[in-house]
Amino acid sequence: MTAADSAPGALPYRPCVGLCLIGPQGRVFAGQRIDTPGDAWQMPQGGVDKGETPLQAALRELEEETGVPAALVEVLRESPDWIPYDLPPELAARLWKGRYRGQTQKWFALRFLGRDSDVDIARKHAEFSRWADTIAWETLCSVTKRVTRIYTGPREI
Fold this sequence. Notes:
alpha+beta; single chain
């Protein structure tokens, strides 16, 4: 029996990082997904490669997805815990060749020290078709806390 044949609940979580890139006016970077029709926006995120620390993965993903190098950010905070979530079973069977039930994430708050011209989403493996920094940090925090309570119970963010 392979992992793809297992019940989704028996599969492991994919280690992943999420990035909250905060600009000078306290606004947060969000990119419109290039591979999703409609109005799907997200913050940069991605898997932790074997041998990488979560911070190394976060800085690599940041540059891969936004073109922003580590030298242009200050790490403000790392989530104290890994935050897991399950995908719907039909999606878990299709993504990542059915090897994972969902993801477990470490989140990083990063202060962006650069300029808009330092952001380059036209990457070799582009994830975003456009980007914006229009979400106020305060709004994001209140929404994140509410959603986190709904899905996983209260957590420190």
